[in-house]
Structures are given as structure tokens and as C-alpha cells.
Amino acid sequence: MRRPVRIAVTGAAGAISNSLLFKVASGEMFGKDQPVILQLIEMPGRMEALRGLAMELEDCAYPLLHTITLHDNVEEGFNNIHYALLIGARPRGPGMERSDLLESNAEIFTRQGRALNDYANRDVKVLVVGNPANTNALIASRNAPKLSPSQFTALTRLDHNRAKGILANHTGANPRNIGRIVIWGNHSTTQYPDLHHATVLDEPVMNQIDFDWYQNVFIPKIQNRGAEIIEARSVSSAASAAQAVVDHMRDWILGTDAGEIVSMGIVSDGSYGVEKGIFYSFPVRCDYGRYQIVRGLDISEWGRERMRLTEAELLDEKAAVNHLLPPETEASH
Ligand code: LMR
Question: Which of 51, 60, 191, 214 is most buried as measured by Cβ atoms within 10 A of its Cβ?
Fold first, then answer.
């Protein structure tokens, strides 16, 4: 048996964690031979709910669940962690725009970035789920100068999985047989779900679907799926978000399937002409705990325009929080 890994989860008593933690404890994320220590973090007023959740986890008697610790502050909760799943954020209610959340979440992610810098393991891998996820990842990363920005990621696997599920439903294919979908840009309504490289049973998807459906039905459906779920449930997606977190981390750590492409919000190195330094969703492959951008995909002018639109939104978000960001240091490159 391996040595246990330490995983911190913020917003640990929330709806996403309520699905997620049972998957992590049962080995779905890190593999069936990897024991886990869960360092669960919540706001002080939510500690009773968290205690209840910890009791339920204990009552499952998971062989891989080594220890659970509960914390009401990130400084303690991030101690020595190998992985951070940053789920807690001020949630969006019906009719609220993601940009409304920028400032209130900037404060939360500034503190979390500092705490990761000071208390986490030097190799910590961070996934930001709380919205606006891409810009929250930027804020956390900029506040952690001892860590590389490449250790921070933002969740766009939920959009990727949505695209796969909805395309499977439309074409009658099994999701398992659909590959090479790409989500470009922000986890927001400007994202560009790109099917130009996608395949169903190794055949190009674009030969099997109507362009009009792709442009006028599929793309807006993926872009607005989060809001549509909020309208229907009055709360954000939870179980599907938890599944996406598992998929993102599992692929990052254990590697993507041969030939497969997944989407991750990562710091831009300028690939595909995207401005360096923002957290933008790219097509990636993972191996041995590292991700690499898939280069050389052909992008039409039509696609470029969409990529630029979502880039522009991320630059606007960055500008809106810029006064809160510490100056860039050498170590943060
Ligand atoms: C989702 O995509 O379901 C969420 O990010 C929606 C939201 O803004 O909370």
C-alpha cells in the first residue's frame, strides 16, 4: 500500500463536496491503491454540518480513507497538502452575473493563495472550482510566489463533459466513443466549445452533424448549461461538478487515455496566440502528473474569433481585479 496523500477541500460541507468526498474516499480520483487523508475546510458557522458529513464518511468504512481532519481556516487546513480542491466561493444565485462575484471572491482566493504558498507541500496541485474559476485561479496563483503558476488549474472539465454528453445524446453514440472535444477559454457563457477536431468512433464529428445545429443550438446550450441548471434547481450543478472534479484530477495525476484530449483551465504560455498569464481552457494531454497543451490544431478564422472573444472576457476580469493582485515576481514564471 502507498503512503496516504493529503487532500484539502474548501467549501467541504457544500453540495459539490457532498457528492465529491465519497468518490474521493472510495478511490475514484486517485486510484484503488491510494489511501487519502481528507483535510476538510469550512466557514466557522458551517462546522456542525461538516462534522455530520465527516461522520457519514466514517460510517462508510472506506478502506482507503486514512484520516479526516476538520478546519475552520485555510492556514491550518492546507498544512502539508499534496492536492487542493478549492470549491468554496460565494455562490451565484438566479439572475446574478459571474462578474458580480469577482470582487467578493478575490478576497477569498487571495488568502487561499497565500496559505498555499506558506503551508502546502511544494509540489501541491491545485484545482479551482469556485466561480469565477479561471480568474480565481489567477488570483490564488499570483498570491503564491513560491509555487509555479502551472500548479494551479481551473475546472472546465464540466463544460467538456457536458459537450460530450449532449453530443452523445444528439448522435446516438456512446460517450465512451466520443473524443477530442475542446473547450477554449473561460468557464462562462463566452467559452468556445469546439467540435472541429472531435470524433465519434474515430470519424470526424463535423461530418455527422448539421453546422446550423452546432452553431445555433449546441454552442449556446453548453455556454448556458450552468445557468439553465440554476434556473431549474435554484442552486448550481453539484453532482456533475463533482464528477468533473474527479475526472480532471484523475487525468492530471494518472494520465489521459492514449490519443485522448481533455480540457483544463491553465496558465497561458502564449499558445494559439492567447495572451500569456491568464488562465484559459486549452486542449491538453496528461502524463506522470503533468499536462501539456496539444499544439498544432487547425483553427479556422470563425473559431479564432470565438477564442478571442472568451480571451477578451478573461482580460476584462483580470483588469477588474488587477488592483488586488500583487506585482508579478520572477519566481512566479
Ligand atoms: C456551472 O457551470 O454549473 C456553474 O459554474 C454555474 C455557476 O455559475 O455557478
Answer: 191
